[in-house]
Amino acid sequence: MDRRMFLKAGASLAVVSAVAACAKQAAAPAAKAELGAWGVALDNRNTAIKPGDDFFRYVNGGWIDRTEIPADKASYGAFDHVYDQAEKQVRAIIEESAAKGGAEGSIEKKIGDFYAAFMDEAGVEAKGAAPLKPSLDAIAAAADKTALCALFGTPGYPSPIESYVNVDSKNSARYLLNVVQSGLGMPNRDYYIQPKFAGESSKYKAYLEQLFTLAGVADPAGRAARVHALETRIAQAHWPLQDQRDALKTYNLVETAALPATAPGFAWPQFLTAMGAGDVAQVSLNERTALQRIAALYAARPLDEWKDWATAHRISDAARFLSKPFVDARFDFFGKVINGQQENRERWKRGVGAVEDALGEAIGQVYVARHFPEDSKAKMDTLVQNLLAAMKPRIEALDWMSAETKTRALEKLATFRTKIGYPSKWRDYTSLQIVPGDLLGNVDRAGAFALAWEMQKLKGPIDRDEWLMTPQTVNAYYWPEKNEIVFPAAILQPPFFDPNADPAVNYGAIGAVIGHEISHGFDDQGRLYNAEGLLNTWWTPADDRNFNERAKKVSDLYSTFEPLPDFKINGKQTLGEDIADFAGILIALDAYKLSLNGAEAPVLDELTGVQRFFLAYGQTWRDKIREEALKSQITSDVHSPSEFRVNGAVRNVDAWYDAFAVTEGQKMFVAPENRARIW
To answer: Which of 178, 152, 177 is nearest to 274 (CA)?
Structure first.
């Protein structure tokens, strides 16, 4: 998963206890797996469908037919099942902290006080809109655009221009402040400028009017119309997502002293000083031309218009932590209109999420102690090394890559760093103040703490031990600037990993996820970084052309998929994830075959080992999604919908055709000469 876009992939830990043992275990496990007899729920299939016509529904069609998406979810599938389990485990940790109390300033008391403030529904209702007053007054009091820019940089306030800190892509010895486009309330620029989103756009304007009304702001309809018009102008300035994920286009180093001349119209010194970056010498203007247009728009539009925008976004951002009318208004738009949810999540679930956002690593430290066996790190490391080893001969055997580039690719593979389970050092929350009963204040202070933590990185050396996810996160990622793959603890549950499952299943599930993360180092963007994590031209021109020709087959294929009428996948937008999906399958399948040490895998329920591998892969992407959420994903996500992460990926893998006797004439058949062949 790309560090900057946080993709929906997964990885596991204790998985190695079964998978790494595969070399010694050719028979089915003695203990019963959680799903089915050996790790795949065969009754979830729809065997009336040919695998070569729709493999996703062949594997999951029975489950799809009998499963209803829970009312509080936009989608439901394998990831959601595992997330629900982790959420319950985290709830127990938080509620125990709340019950235990603890000494003043202790982490237990901070966790407990934050959660108690969220769960005190009566107290929150009694305050109504009052917690908003100080920030709304500050916005109203801004005397000019310079003063408003200072608020934009202040924690707790929205900004049409935002930032994040990352390792400098061209100087791995330092951190760099990356400045990025922002300012939209709806998920993506297309919601403002595409006629097919006219309904959502109209409802968004009504939502803005409702926010102004609830906060007691005068002329709510007029202000909502002005904010909506301003955001439409911002949307027209934005880069599309396919350009946002371009590592070369988004590296634009600028001296901070030159910012007023480079992107005139925005009070850059005041903005940076307010966020704690006033002494930074250089920044990257990631979407350079978009940021220049936003700065010009800031200069051109009236101050009061920008105050209205800031007021609307402050109310919307805070609405989840206010009284019921605010909570309901926000849910009615973002939950129902954008994601199709029928009802809001239970209060305890929202409270758990809020505490995790603020104190995630503190909770993770307890989570690991309870739910991550001590020996799992070593076992998982063994499995990851097996997958890395399986990638090596793939690179060596490429017929389209020169020896020179192969040498560089193998150097990069050899320097991959792996992080498993949890960080080696935990974040210190001593300076974070949590006040009993002050929910929105606690949220704002947690935001200020997080921003200060980010900004202090700019003054120090690179922290090689830093994690971008908590251990209880059901996900995984690749960080190109550090050339590292990271696997949090929480995903070690079926269907991703089951110690009692058949080895083929664990390789097809968690093994393919690990392979996915490894191959991100060699996808269309990851391949641009060298072994040291630097954007560096290490490909020969001919090899570069060869890669792009093969990658185009992938993007062209996915661009033919149309999950909904008038909603096609943009293959350039999803290219990195699509490459990683089918490359991950290839790597994991090679590793599975190597683990057999030349022996034949057993046949279980008339299914070969390779068939079980692919069934497990399809099972991990089991998913149902609401139409509204699917529209949002197609428009705003770098991942293809789950159905196409299966059906798009396997049709490029020769072994899948052989395993399920897929022949010409079946719907998913691609002639061998037209299949994408990269890694």
So the answer is: 152
Are residues 253 and 178 located together in one domain of the fold? yes
CA–CA separation, 572 vs 318, rounded Å? 35
- Answer yes or no: is 595 within a domain: yes
Once rounded to an integer, what is the mean pLDDT over residues 376-401?
88
Q: Give the pairing type, strands 282-285 and 171-181.
A: parallel
Check pLDDT > 70 for residue 157. Answer: yes
Residue 364 lies in a domain: no
SS3 173: strand
pLDDT tens across 164-198, in order? 999 999 999 999 999 999 999 999 999 999 999 99
User: End of a domain among 298, 318, 338?
Assistant: 318
Domains of the chain: total? 2
pTM: 0.93
Write the Ramachandran bin of 619: left for phi over 0, alpha for psi from -120 to 50, otherwise beta: alpha
Same domain for 417 and 273: no
Do 488 and 614 share a domain, yes or no?
yes
Element (H, E) at 309: helix 303-318
pLDDT at 497 over 80: yes
- Spatial neighbors of 565 by CB under 8 A, at least 6 apart, are none
| Cβ pair 13, 380 in contact under 8 A | yes
**pLDDT exceeds 90 at position 215:** yes
Claim to verify: residue 309 and residue 386 sit in the same structural domain: no
Tokens of 33: 């797996």
Is the pLDDT score of 222 beyond 70? Answer: yes
Q: State which amino acid sits at residue 245.
A: R
Residue 604: which domain range?
15-62+376-423+467-674
Instruction: Tell me the CB-side half-sphere exposure of residue 515, using CA atoms within 13 A.
Output: 30
- pLDDT tens-digit series, residues 552-596: 999 999 999 999 999 999 999 999 999 999 999 999 999 999 999
Smallest Cα–Cα separation from 558: which of 626, 647, 624, 637? 647
Give residue 10's pLDDT: 30
Amino acid in the structure at residue 323: S
Contact between 659 and 81 under an 8 Å Cβ cutoff? The reply is no
CB-based contact 240:267 (threshold 8 Å): no
Whether 28 has a pLDDT exceeding 80, the answer reads no
Kindly state whether residue 48 falls inside one of the protein's structural domains: yes
pLDDT number for residue 30: 52
Strand 484-488, strand 417-421: pairing: parallel
The answer to whether residues 401 and 297 belong to one domain is no
CATH of the domain at 661: 3.40.390.10
CB contact set of 176 (below 8 Å; sequence gap of 6+):
165, 166, 167, 168, 169, 253, 282, 283, 284, 458
Same domain, 198 and 302: yes
| Domain assignment of residue 592, yes or no | yes
pLDDT at residue 377, rounded to an integer: 74
Residue 438 CB partners (closer than 8 Å, separation 6+): 117, 131
